[in-house]
């Protein structure tokens, strides 16, 4: 039996507070503007990937959530593999004692611990996990920023999932994309109090894919260029300053304004693109009402109807209580002990001065699930013997 | 009994294809950008106003849709009265033979022939009708453009309802607003083929008022200034050229892009303003699908969820058939004989190559009413003896 080389890692989801929308180079995935995100805890949401290299393998194979997928057809995945193998080959050429992994076939097995149908940012965590795990398998001497340049070519926002905490993706200027990379603005330990609540919103119809949508916006929105040139650069500076100062009201205001503007340029696209629905808009009205005497929470929406609500830990029980009023029947896993530690606050219903009329109470299941999580660390390396997804034969332990 | 002077007129609704949103002067109602509208037929939608001046009256009185309202509290109405009375006083000073009307008290009775709760543009037709009727009562030697300067101070878009056909409101530059006036781009006879279908959309919650909303956008939207400076001037030129050329696809594209952009700057407002709901967006998807092989219809949405669909007459039966598929149970008054003249087309359901999956079929009443109308003429003067709203005593004939 040939020698086995294997790595198993998890990588987090990140939710942008200054949004990425539009590519200046679609094959290298170079964005038209810089962006900034918060990395959410892998305890609630993560991708997990095991990659094994073995001379016994006759072909590269990939399983995603238990289903085998073609590698060749996925140009972005091929690019990530090619780049990391080339880096490994260079190392091997420089150091003859290294195992010859660059030439071996590999088996990749990747799973998300959250429903992919929920429309959460699974491609960010997925590609970050792929590239991070490859870098561990190949023992590449790259820091997370260097690695982000590779992950970016899998899925743009994946580059930001290589760090914990608060992460900027600097758009860069070079044609080869070498300066379009993620950098950490502040680690999760800087602002441990920042939490998030994800509302998984029911949606009758899947919207436009981000890949298609953003290029249609680049092509047809008269307002996008103004956003790129005149709005985002200052907003990035302001957001970084707000994070450094842990100024939640400023952080929240910028987050909400940027979410609004992202959906505004989608609407200014021709034909227009909609990601939010009436439930999403009710959540905006609810958070706006909640903030009327001071900013206590921020909503943000990616390319789908789901809301992510950022807030300091101390406001979360009140927010959950309000959400539960308008969206009865949402599933909730009390993984951060919100209900356990704040039973009265959670059961309180609407706050005293809250105008209940700002939204109707929705039917059961309008919000399917509420996930409570927090800002947290970047990719984690696990022990493949204990946590690996592949069995002795190099096939998924769990097959769908 | 004192001499009676009375005028009775009707004025039409207009629906903008280049939208007005934002004031540079809130008391004179001077806009931040020029706009352009199509005047819709009074046969379907109109305001009707009777105004009588009499020495028997002891005070100015106003009835709107059968309910007496305070004149004093309505600064905009006071402004329209003051301006037209001043013009009458000047005439009387110049010509001693004229009846002395400027000093008499008046009774105003105004009604809309369409439901005000429907969120249609009743303030435009209402103020246009008020000012037009005052001009007839006072026999003011003003053309419609001069009169539009007065009507504008009642409700901005009212200035455009003083003309039939295709009407631009030129924003003007002067501080006193004297050059902020409506001009006719083309009469309704230029493009008699242009029709409209209004979908009265069910809405659970009334949105922000336009008056409040637009000033919040002026204050907080980073994108509005770009729209004002860089988008609208060219769009006005392009729209005027499309109307002159009767180029429907171009007219439609500009109309849809401008509606999208108006709602985009509403969304870029902080906190964001929503006027469209899931039903409105379904109508956009339906029209977009209908246009996939060539532009045959244009949607536009004002500050509410109702859609106005412009299209050449020949496409209207097909459009009605599609709308009836997705929005069962909408009330329809066949006032333009659409169903009578096209029974087969109207009953045909979706066209052959139409992808039915672009929207779910909505529940009964999601669209409450469909109104079929067309581009038509400006205010009409009626015979008060036959059509007046006031009885012999100068009180409304019909009281709610």
Automatic annotation (TrEMBL), chains A, B:
Question: Its GO CC terms?
Answer: cytosol
Domain named Mvd1 C-terminal: residues: 196-381
Q: Which UniProt keywords apply?
A: ATP-binding, Lipid biosynthesis, Lipid metabolism, Lyase, Nucleotide-binding, Steroid biosynthesis, Steroid metabolism, Sterol biosynthesis, Sterol metabolism
Return the SUPFAM superfamilies for the record: GHMP Kinase, C-terminal domain, Ribosomal protein S5 domain 2-like
* Domain Diphosphomevalonate decarboxylase-like N-terminal, first and last residues per copy: 11-182
EC class, as a word, reads lyase
Q: What is its EC number?
A: 4.1.1.33
Task: Give the matching InterPro entries.
Answer: GHMP_kinase_C_sf, Mev_decarb, Mev_diP_decarb, MVD-like_N, Mvd1_C, Ribosomal_Su5_D2-typ_SF, Ribsml_uS5_D2-typ_fold_subgr
Q: Which GO terms describe its biological process?
A: isopentenyl diphosphate biosynthetic process, mevalonate pathway; sterol biosynthetic process
Task: Describe the reaction catalysed, as an equation.
Answer: (R)-5-diphosphomevalonate + ATP = isopentenyl diphosphate + ADP + phosphate + CO2
What GO molecular function terms would the record report?
Answer: ATP binding; diphosphomevalonate decarboxylase activity
Q: Which PANTHER family match?
A: DIPHOSPHOMEVALONATE DECARBOXYLASE
- Give the UniProt family note: Belongs to the diphosphomevalonate decarboxylase family.
What is this protein's record name? Diphosphomevalonate decarboxylase
The upper taxonomy is: Eukaryota, Fungi, Fungi incertae sedis, Mucoromycota, Mortierellomycotina
């Amino acid at each position: 039996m040939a020698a086995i080389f294997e790595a198993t890692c998890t990588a987090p989801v990140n939710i942008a507070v200054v949004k990425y929308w539009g590519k200046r180079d679609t094959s290298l995935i170079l964005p038209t503007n810089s962006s900034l995100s918060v990395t959410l805890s892998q305890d609630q949401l993560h991708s997990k990937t095991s990659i094994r290299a073995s001379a016994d393998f006759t072909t590269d194979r990939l399983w995603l959530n238990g289903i085998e997928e073609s590698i060749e057809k996925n140009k972005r995945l091929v690019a990530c593999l090619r780049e990391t193998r080339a880096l490994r080959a260079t190392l091997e050429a420089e150091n003859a004692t290294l195992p010859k992994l660059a030439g071996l076939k590999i088996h990749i097995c990747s799973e998300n611990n959250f429903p992919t149908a929920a429309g959460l940012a699974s491609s960010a965590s997925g590609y970050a996990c792929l590239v991070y795990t490859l870098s561990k398998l190949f023992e590449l001497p790259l820091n997370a920023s260097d690695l982000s340049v590779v992950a970016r070519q899998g899925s743009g926002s994946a580059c930001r999932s290589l760090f914990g905490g608060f992460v900027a993706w600097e758009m860069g200027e070079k044609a080869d994309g070498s300066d379009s990379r993620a950098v950490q603005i502040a680690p999760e330990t800087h602002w441990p109090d920042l939490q998030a609540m994800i509302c998984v919103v029911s949606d009758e119809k899947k919207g436009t894919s981000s890949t298609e949508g953003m290029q249609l916006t680049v092509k047809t929105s008269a307002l996008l260029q103004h956003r790129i040139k005149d709005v985002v650069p200052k907003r990035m500076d302001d957001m970084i300053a707000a994070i450094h100062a842990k100024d939640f009201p400023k952080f929240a205001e910028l987050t909400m304004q940027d979410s609004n503007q992202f959906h505004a340029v989608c609407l200014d696209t021709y034909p227009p693109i909609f990601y939010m629905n009436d439930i999403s808009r009710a959540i905006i009205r609810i958070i706006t009402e909640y903030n009327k005497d001071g900013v206590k929470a921020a909503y943000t929406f990616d390319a789908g109807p789901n809301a992510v609500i950022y807030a300091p830990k101390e406001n979360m029980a009140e927010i959950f209580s309000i959400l539960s009023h308008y969206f009865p029947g949402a599933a909730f896993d009390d993984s951060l002990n919100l209900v356990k530690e704040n039973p009265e606050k959670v059961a309180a219903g609407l706050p005293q001065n809250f105008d209940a009329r700002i939204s109707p109470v929705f039917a059961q299941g309008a919000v399917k699930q509420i996930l409570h999580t927090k800002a947290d660390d970047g990719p984690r390396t696990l022990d493949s013997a204990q946590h690996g997804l592949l069995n002795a034969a190099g096939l998924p332990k769990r097959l769908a």
